[in-house]
Amino acid sequence: MSRLVFITGGSSGIGQALASHALAQGWRVVLVARRKEALLAWVQQQPAAQHIAVYAADVRDPQAMAAVGRECIAEHGLPDVVIANAGISVGIDSADFEDLQVLRETLETNVLGMAASFHPFLALMRERRAGTLVGIGSVAAIRGLPGHGAYCASKAAVLAYCESLRGECRSFGVRVLTLSPGYVDTPLTRGNPYPMPFLMTPEAFARSAWRAIERGDSYRVIPWPMAVVARLLRLLPNALFDRIFSGRPRKPRRGR
User: Fold this and answer.
1) For the chain, what percentages of helix, strand and coil (3-state, to nearest 5) are there?
2) CB count, 10 Å around CB of 46?
3) Which domain holds residue 160?
4) How far apart are CA 99 and CA 254, in angstroms?
5) How many independent structural domains does the chain possess?
6) Residues 55, 31: contact at Cβ < 8 Å?
7) pLDDT, position 100
8) Virtual CA dihedral for 216, 24, 187, 190, nearest 10 degrees?
9) CB environment 140-157: b (16+ within 10 A), e (fewer)
10) Can you give the pTM of this predicted structure?
11) Is 255 contained in some domain?
């Protein structure tokens, strides 16, 4: 039987590109998203639609994700790869009380949602002594950008969480890979009011992502020039970093 990948956030952007690449390589695909109608509409357009299964769930709901995981295993088997891709990106201003809810939703989606996506499969992968868990981070985890505190904080947490999980899983033969995209042309980035160097298509990201998965990498920044930029940003003294980015246009806030 062909290999199976479980992907959250499959209703658009990176999730669909990862699924398309997997299908082209002969994988079976399980897609999860809140918007089942959008998933089904996309699946119906795929030549390999018979190899795609669709479930509706909110990654912020651990019970719902546990139920979806059980259904996936019962109906399709234990995945070889689980990609926790679901995420949101919204600007915040902590002086605005309403934006604290945006912060909560971002952390619940990007961090708790990742753990909830991995949870149903982790014990069985350890028992099988094989499997790969893939967390989608971001280069935004490297430094905190003004107005982007929710997203930057959530992706910094993703990097730390995946690193911790990698150490926990190593002796069981389960791999954990953290992928940190730069700017990818998706609905999350199209409203950004600032330059996005090395902007790549979701399809280009998916090709590089799958190469990292197949190689058994533990961490990869995509595209590679963004890794250089990230290292340089990390080395900048705080005073210089603050001066450069203090006047930068900010990520749009919800309803603004």
Assistant:
1) 50, 15, 35
2) 15
3) 4-245
4) 8
5) 1
6) yes
7) 97
8) 80
9) bbbbebbbbbbbbbbbbb
10) 0.94
11) no
Catalytic residues: 151
Whole-angstrom Cα distance, residue 106 to residue 229? 25
pLDDT tens for residues 230-247?
A: 889 889 999 998 998 887
CA dihedral for 86, 91, 95, 98, sign (positive or negative): negative
Whether residue 84 contacts residue 117, with contact meaning beta carbons closer than 8 Å, is answered with: yes
Establish if 250 belongs to a structural domain: no
Q: Is the pLDDT of residue 167 over 90?
A: yes
d(CA 247, CA 228) in angstroms, rounded, equals 23
Percent of residues, the chain, with pLDDT higher than 90: 74
Q: Would you say 46 and 39 are in contact if contact means Cβ atoms under 8 Å apart?
A: no
pLDDT of residue 28 exceeding 90: yes
CA 90/CA 102 separation, integer angstroms? 7
